[in-house]
Structure prediction request, 215 residues.
Amino acid sequence: MTFRSLSPDSVHGRQAEARRNDLAVLDAARDVFAAQGADAPISAVAERAGVGMGTLYRRYGSKTELLQRLCVLAMEQAIEAADAALSAENPWAGLCHYIRACVEMRSGALASLAGQIETTTEMRGTAQRSMTRMREVVDRAHHAGSLRADVSVLDIAWLIEQFSRRAPDSVDSDEERNVRARLLTVALDGLLAPGATPLPGRPPSRARYVRRWSA
Prediction:
């Protein structure tokens, strides 16, 4: 799953070409920066996207602007996944759908940028909406008694981040996807109530989660 799922089908001609280039750049940037961090060169993004540097800078005035936009789109996809989860009749199935969808589109892969770029008003607003939706998905599963009581919203957020990571220059082969699917299934089973072993320590704090993005 890529950012192309956000592209409307109603654009044509030059506008459609610009949109395709835009989404190709965003897809490439997600892979490059998630693997190499915020210090990755813009040229690596352009090369991976198959576009020229001129095309890239026509769409984004700076590297920072590109990263900020990428973060917003990733969170918008997570919101879409949460909306789909909330429409599921079974709260547990909805939660599993949400986690699997976020892992598949690597919505947590950009956590490596935390503290390395300035957060914008749009980023903060979108993050708040994304967290609210995630909390609704988790609360539904808690109220249904299917999600173990000692699992918090931020436990789910960090679980998604862990499964969203990829090794630098790794190839997402069938074998890699199979291993990831198996381990994610193990992790999801570990979320089921009542839970065989109490979770150690205290739940992650929201302050720590937010503080990471303070430049």
Summary: The longest helix spans residues 13-36. DSSP finds nine helices and no strands in the chain.
